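Hi R.,

Here's the input for the 5-O-phosphono-beta-D-ribofuranosylamine complex you asked about:
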Amino acid sequence: MNNNINIGVLVSGSGSNFQSIIDQSEKGNLDAVIKVVISNNPDAYALERAKKHNISAIFIDHNDFNDRQQFDQKMIDILKSYEVELVIMAGFMRVLTPLFIKAFPMKIMNIHPAILPSFQGIHAQERAFDYGVKFSGCTVHFADEGVDTGPIIIQSVIPAYDDDTADTLQQRILKEEHRIFPQAIQFYAEGKLEIVGRKVRIKNHKKIDEAPLHNPPLDKF
Ligand code: GRF
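And here is the predicted structure with 5-O-phosphono-beta-D-ribofuranosylamine in place:
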């Protein structure tokens, strides 16, 4: 039995990823305790989700601070006061300053709705759809000082269909986000993540079968 790790979650919006973490935690599938959730948006539905599950929820208005660093320092102070060991960015729409990254080195996870390093930044799903990709998906990675550039922990790949819209593609990506984020947290909680340079290895974990995917499926070849 592992000791539970303390996690803090940063959100800005709906919080469906946050919900998947709550659900897996309540099912006993995560060796993690959600100590606090912080939102920079007072109307984030994620705050309601926190209240429903008796999780401390704090709104901090980034407009109240002179600069990004001061806002980040406030978040650091709160997270440290809750003894947070791992920070989860679950749809948090602010870029973190180096101050924050240094306060939690390789202890911040972000989810991105694309196969990184493709389509970094905002509106990734729409941009992938408009580009005409045949596959898309999502990535959980450690946050570093860049935007969606840190070491990759886990990725999920889904096909894009001819009859997809940006919206249907986004919905199917989101379903996978809800699976890989709890998994990444659990790997961390189990002490299985080994970071070597920008590569993250999962200690003693099974290997995926060699099974190339083709979209559209191959006909004769
Ligand atoms: C997700 O698509 C996530 O990948 C991106 O922001 C969205 C947040 O959705 N970073 P939700 O708030 O978890 O529902």
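One thing worth noting: The domain at 5-202 is CATH 3.40.50.170 (Rossmann fold).

Cheers,
M.
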